Amino acid sequence: MSPLDWVTVLVVLLVGLAWYLSYSAARLDRLHARVEATSAALDAQLVRRAESTIELANTGRLDAASGLILAAAAVESLGTSEGDADRESVESNLSDALALALPPEVLRGLRATDDQINEALARVAASGTRVQLARRFHNDAVVDVRRIRRKTFVRWFRLAGHADLPATIEFDDELPSGLRP
């Protein structure tokens, strides 16, 4: 091979490497943006779940203790924000309060009363389902970012910049058995 051939091969390799690094950096940036978007969506769904739980507690159809438990857990949930360290435990507490206040036998009795309580129960069930989906989407996005950031070229060339490594969000988001679709 002549020196010109070596230079051509080297230039092609460098251009290929530059393209790969640029592509990887752009992909990583898009994935980080997706994590931020799914985090915001999850936060919005958690607020909706807490609000629908407060509406249910305020219907006056629940016994006083159950209404108080639900309202207290929902207000605590509304009082936390996205970055709070105890957000996961607060959201688990709301799920536990829903399960405690709405066992299947209570749900059967409530559904027989009127349409207002059925609408409130439907809003709680729908918001709970949306929380489950939003948390799953967020955790999937986080797993994708972590998978890309583990690649050797991403670490060597610091393609993630100074972005924090995102973390999955884990809490009990199970709906009471009588509210599951």
Could you characterize the architecture of this molecule?
This protein starts with a helix and ends in a 25-residue tail after the last helix. It is built from 6 helices and no strands. The mean pLDDT is 94. It has one domain. 73% of the residues lie in helices and 0% in strands. The protein is mostly helical. It is rod-shaped.
Strand coverage percent:
under 5%
Query: What is the quaternary state of this protein?
Result: single chain
- What's the N-to-C terminus distance? 69 Å
Order of secondary-structure elements: HHHHHH
Instruction: Please provide the count of β strands.
Output: 0
Please tell me what the overall shape is.
rod-shaped
Largest sheet report: none
* Overall structural domain count: 1
Helix/strand/pairing category: mainly alpha
Task: Evaluate the radius of gyration.
Answer: 24 Å
| Mean model confidence by pLDDT | 94
Unreliable segments of 5+ consecutive residues: none
Number of helices: 6
